[in-house]
Amino acid sequence: MCGIMAYIGKKQAYPILLNGLKKLEYRGYDSSGVAIMNGSLSLLKKEGKVQALETFAETRKTEGNIGIGHTRWATHGIPSDINAHPHQSQSERLTIVHNGIIENHEPLKEMLIKHGYKFQSSTDTEVLVQLIEWYQKRYNLTTIVAFSRALQDVEGSFAVVLFDVYDPTKLFAARRQSPMVLGIGEKECMISSDAMPLAPYVDQVVYVEDDVIIETDDTGEYKFFDLNLTQIDQPISDIKNASIAYDMGEFESFMLKEVHEQTEAAHRLITSGIDINIGKNIDRIIITACGTSWHSGLIAEYMIEKFARINVEVEYASEFRYRDPVLSSRDLVLGISQSGETADTIAALQMAKNAGCKTMAIVNTANSTIARMVDQVSLLNAGPEIGVASTKAFTNQLVTFCLLIINLLEDSNIDLAYDLKSELQKLPSLISRTLKANENIVDIAAYISQYKSAIFLGRGTMYPVALEGALKLKEISYIHAEGYPAGEMKHGPIALVDNKMPIIGICNEDKHLSKTISNIQEMKARNGIIILLKSEGIHIPKELADFVIETPRCHEFIAPIIQNIPLQLLAYHTATTLELDVDKPRNLAKSVTVE
Ligand code: AGP
């Protein structure tokens, strides 16, 4: 949440900042701003997407070779010009951009108010910049010393970049539990929330560690310090030739492009395989994740238990981290995350590490915090996912679990491993067929777009698929949607069903089929509007469904992947019918770096 981009060197900073902020918009897009230094400071901030800032800046001064920029996802204070970053200290000497949450901002703010500080915004960030100035003035400290003292006082998470007009050839930055990457160029440095915006400009980066302060200057020099200002080293990584695709190509949105990339992404992962090992002394696997990644964990629970017979539990990271679970060194805690930066998943994995568990992660982003903190990591290899709604990452999370199950079976049941492997080989072409068929989804989506709610139902692995279908619909179309195990409907939710309730029933050729059909018949008997998603070859009573979506027949091992794809398209076309921004739905951000 929130994206930071900063530049210091000899080039014009503004175009680099703007370009970077556009690429970081996936992290938050309710307002944005830049501060550029050129003799005097030009501070430009605007509510809305980065485009609004760009338009606003057209008639303002943007020249200068040092600058800091920010795109915001509001935590403290509504999205507005005033709450947009950068924020300044009372004397306007210091300017700051921040990603994260200063949890103890209230007592700090009270202390500063007692000392005569006045606040313009409702943000926790303004408290931090005022606190740095307070240290500077009260103890007559240099910027970096005041910065380090203030950082020692704050609780919570931060990635910050600080500029001091009295020290106008330098930028200072620091991070704790919020991502920050330093880009090292030819006589220039850049700082960003991820490496993607840096890739066009630099070949080398530093994935800055927690509680590290950076000092850079306009000759491209940089130094790292711990919070006591002892100089330290940080490992440098090469990102030369990193092909970081950032365009929509022929598609009208990143989401649609990413949905269509699933054939290739799955093929790539199946071909490359995975290189992780559950190990011998493991009694259970605890999967922890959030949102869509949690749904893939739930499918994995069904699949690993059925095929590999290992005990699996699935935990929302935000609950697991606080509920004091009973853990041991015989537990493998497996985090799933597209971004690798989700705050709750990081904290859940850290708790597991502290409890002596083995840790593993499945992530899409190499070098992300989660990728670096666990004992073993498996990369999704899905390519960058820009649309807020996770699509191809989910598919490759499930492909990873298929590969993991096959690996596990190779030691215990080679025949089954062989059969499942050959089913998995069919997946890319089945994804491609699923994407090509079903032109009626556009019409069904137009129909759904008239309603206020929808219910998704399934049994077995189709239950988490129902949860994922409902999440996709609500997050991009803003239509209230719930996923339920089909058998649970009569325990309460069936009371919601009438002729204004679309019911998306998901079935597959498995042992649950007849039960699911019966449950859907119960919905039809209450006048529900039935949209049946089924694989080819399943015969249903003629009068059961108002609409039918068909997918190619496939083995239950890969059915969750196939059945999910029409639901991605259903959500997509519903949102576009409603003329909504599918890539940047309201209130959301791609990378949830606050808890
Ligand atoms: C999915 O479409 C989401 N936008 C969201 O639920 C996401 O899956 C969740 O925030 C977890 O993100 P992660 O995979 O990057 O950890």
Keywords:
alpha/beta; Rossmann fold; 3 domains; eight-stranded antiparallel β-sheet; binds 2-deoxy-2-amino glucitol-6-phosphate
For CATH, the homologous superfamily of the largest domain is named as Aminohydrolase, N-terminal nucleophile (Ntn) domain
| Main beta sheet | 8 strands, antiparallel
Architecture (CATH level 2) name of the largest domain: 4-Layer Sandwich
Structural class, from helix and strand content? alpha/beta
Rg from Cα: 25 Å
Distance between the termini: 10 Å
In total, the number of strands is: 25
Protein architecture, described:
By secondary structure, the chain is an alpha/beta fold. The chain folds into three domains: 3-238, 4-Layer Sandwich (Glutamine Phosphoribosylpyrophosphate, subunit 1, domain 1), CATH 3.60.20; 249-425, 3-Layer(aba) Sandwich (Rossmann fold); 437-595, Glucose-6-phosphate isomerase like protein, domain 1 (Rossmann fold, 3-Layer(aba) Sandwich), CATH 3.40.50.10490. The protein is 36% helix and 24% strand. The strands form four sheets. An eight-stranded antiparallel sheet has the order 3-2-4-1-10-9-11-15, covered by helices on one side. The chain has a seven-stranded antiparallel sheet with strand order 5-6-7-8-12-13-14. The longest helix has 21 residues, at 392-412. 2-deoxy-2-amino glucitol-6-phosphate (AGP) binds next to α8.
